[in-house]
Design a protein that fits this description.
- The chain is α+β, with helices and mostly antiparallel strands.
- The protein has one domain (2-80, 95-161).
- Helix content is 43%, strand content 21%.
C-alpha cells in the first residue's frame, strides 16, 4: 500500500504544480492583454486630441481669413500697426490676432504677417499674408497650421501646411 499512496501523493503534487504553472501563465497573459488595451486606449486618445487640435487650428485659419477678407489692409492690426485707444478708432469687428479665442473644447490664437513687411521663417515669398494659427487643448499640447493668402482684397488661399 505504501507504493500506491506514494503514487497518489506524486500525482497530487504534479497536478498542483501544473495548476500553479497554468495560473501563472494565465496571469501573465492577462497582464499582457491589459497592457495592450491600455496602450491602444492611450494611442486613440492621443490621435483624437491631435485631430481635435487640427480642427481648432483650421477654425482659427478660417476666422483669420474671413477677417482679412472683411477688413483687408484697412485693419491696423493686419498692417502690423498698434491700435491707438483714441476716439473713433474702434474697428467694426474685433480683430482676432494675438489673443486666445475659445473654440469647441480648445482655443486658438492667430498671427498674421504681411510678407512684404515682416521677415518670415516659414515661406520665401515677397507678397501676400501669412496666417499662423496655434491651437491648444487643456493638458494636450499645441499644434500649428499656416495659411498663405493673396494680398487683400481677395485674400484667396494659396497654400496650407503644418510647420515642424
Amino acid at each position: 500500500m505504501k507504493a500506491s499512496e506514494h503514487k497518489k501523493r506524486n500525482s497530487r503534487g504534479s497536478i498542483l504544480l501544473l495548476t500553479v504553472i497554468l495560473l501563472s501563465l494565465l496571469a501573465v497573459l492577462f497582464l499582457l492583454v491589459t497592457n495592450t488595451i491600455l496602450l491602444g486606449t492611450q494611442a486613440r486618445e492621443s490621435f483624437r486630441a491631435s485631430l481635435e487640435m487640427l480642427y481648432v487650428a483650421e477654425a482659427g485659419l478660417a476666422h483669420g481669413q474671413a477677417f482679412c477678407v472683411a477688413q483687408g489692409e484697412t485693419s491696423p492690426l493686419l498692417a502690423g500697426e498698434a491700435e491707438e485707444g483714441g476716439e473713433g478708432n474702434e474697428p467694426d469687428s474685433k480683430a482676432p490676432f494675438e489673443e486666445w479665442i475659445p473654440f469647441g473644447s480648445g482655443e486658438y490664437r492667430i498671427q498674421a504677417f504681411l510678407l512684404h513687411a515682416d521677415a518670415q521663417p516659414f515661406v520665401k515669398k515677397d507678397t501676400g499674408i501669412l496666417l499662423v494659427a496655434t491651437a491648444r487643448l487643456s493638458g494636450e499640447g499645441r499644434r500649428r497650421a499656416c495659411l498663405l493668402l493673396e494680398d487683400p482684397p481677395s485674400c484667396r488661399s494659396l497654400a496650407w501646411w503644418e510647420p515642424n
